[in-house]
Amino acid sequence: MEENRKKLILYNIARRVALVSVICAAILSVLLIVNYIQTETTDPLNSEALNRLMLELRQNPADETLKEQIRALDLLARRAYFLTLWQIRVGGFLLFFFVLTFLISLKYTSSLSARLPDLSAEYAPKTAWENKLRARRYLIFSGIGLFLVAALAGVLSEDVLKDAGTGVAGQPPLTQAFPGIGEIRDNWPNFRGPEGIGIGYHTDVPTDWDGASGRNVLWKIEIPLPGYNSPILWGKKLFLSGAEDHEQVVYCIDADTGTILWEAMLNDIPGSPEELPENTEDTGLAAPTMATDGACVYVLFGTGDVACLDMEGERLWAKNLGVPENHYGHSSSLIVWQDLLLVQYDQNSGGRLIALETKTGVIRYDQPRDTEISWASPILVNTGNRDELMLNASPNVMSHDPATGRELWRADCMSGEVAPSLAYANGIVFAVNEYALLAAIEPGAEPKILWDSMDDLSEVSSPVATDNYVFVATSYGTVSCYDSKTGERYWFEDLPKGFYSSPVLAGENVYLMDMDGTMYIFKAANEYSLVNTCELGEKAVTVPAFMHGRIYIRGFEHLYCIGE
């Protein structure tokens, strides 16, 4: 009798635990389903207040009060975003816990009830028991269905929020705090301009100048330290880096006057090597082009030192990524995606794609790449439904998710020591390297090589593409134009000097500068139509920047501003 009383107590406890668990699970299920409905019906990517402030900031870019309000609102939105993600995860775990507790308690009560005779029970006909059993089954199946729907809603809600936070599927980030594609294209933020593909969106640029006589040269200044990096611009500020021996400097220059606004010395970075890495004379220690997102500027040197400065030259963070194992010297340039600084770090020891948080320098991911050493720089384009970071190296052209570093696709078409970066136009990727081929690639889960050519391949200069044409220049002076859809070579020209600089498309014209500083300006057409040749007056191998109706060119000794 005493044993039956204990079992009855345990039976009642287990029954109450099961009841509480099923009630809690039901409440959580409803909350998760409601949360999913809210994430689907309410667009988390757009904040009306923040969008209004961003619009006001574009009209008043110097308004510091607006900037502070945007930062504060952005911070609140981010906190809410991560809090919601945490709530969904915790809710999912709790739902699983309560369902599991309910099932265990239910099993325990059923095992005990089989041993406890109910002497007070009255006789009930068979049909009554069948009805009770059927009702219990309906209740159990309904409960299981509710829990499954809630679990699915939780997973889908988290996916929606993650997409909102990372810009997946081509959508803007959660709070619109990052520069949009329109603002990026209105500036010149990295190597080869917006997206890194050699397309200039400022088309009212000059076609006639002479560096020796000063014709149409608005200003010309000497850069104290050497470097083969190209100029970048945001607004009225132009940035370059220079390095020699153990001196590493970033220069900020007024784009209107050529005045050096500030210099930032970066000679005391933690982890920087005491002994400088080997590099060739035509690479040096300041070959990578800088990058900017309009809030900060980012620089990488051949020592592996990387740093972030604000627009006034104050150092925000700096670190060393490891001394490059590179027999020519490191030259891959930087590019920014939302809150990540992306670095293609393909060395003799193997390839890496490194993402650093722009605000802190903390490594978000360090993705190994099964590639050989490369000197190419990344491009960052939207393929219609998502942003893709595309890299050229041997043996593969590869695309990565910029948010996570995850590989999206690869095309096996490269070989040798790869230096040219990729081109992109009309949904097609163009890759080239000497002793390999020029390949047109249709990106996707299973990328296709649409056509290839082995005529006059570039070893340094990157191609540029339009919807109809692809232009390729070689280090021995040949310039070729191909049909971008079929690969037919329309024309080629043998010019006196070779090209390390890459062609840039501005309007209907292609600008291509040889190693002597001669700029060839020709029409983007299926026949060679020379618009003009312009002399800089000194050697140059960098890529010009096009902005403000002007062209900014870095020569071996000077920085030039060309304008009419």
Mean residue pLDDT: 85
Low-confidence stretches: 119-124, 160-176
Radius of gyration (Å): 31 Å
Shape: elongated
Detailed description of the structure:
It is a single chain. This protein has helices at residues 2-41, 48-59, 64-113, 126-166, 181-185, and strands at 199-200, 217-222, 232-234, 237-244, 247-254, 260-265, 291-292, 296-300, 305-310, 315-320, 335-337, 340-344, 351-357, 363-369, 379-382, 387-392, 396-400, 407-412, 423-425, 428-432, 438-442, 448-453, 464-465, 469-473, 478-483, 489-494, 504-506, 509-513, 518-523, 530-535, 545-547, 550-554, 558-562. The strands form 8 sheets. The chain has a 5-stranded mixed β-sheet, with no helix packed on it. A 4-stranded antiparallel β-sheet has the order 2-33-32-31, with no helix packed on it. The protein has 2 domains: 2-115 and 126-169; 191-562, Methylamine Dehydrogenase, Chain H. With 564 residues, the protein is of the alpha+beta class. Helix content is 26%, strand content 29%. The protein starts with a helix and ends with a strand.
Quick structural summary:
The chain is an alpha+beta fold and 564 residues long.
Q: Main traits of this protein?
A:
alpha+beta; Methylamine Dehydrogenase, Chain H; 29% strand; 564 residues; four-stranded antiparallel beta sheet; 2 domains
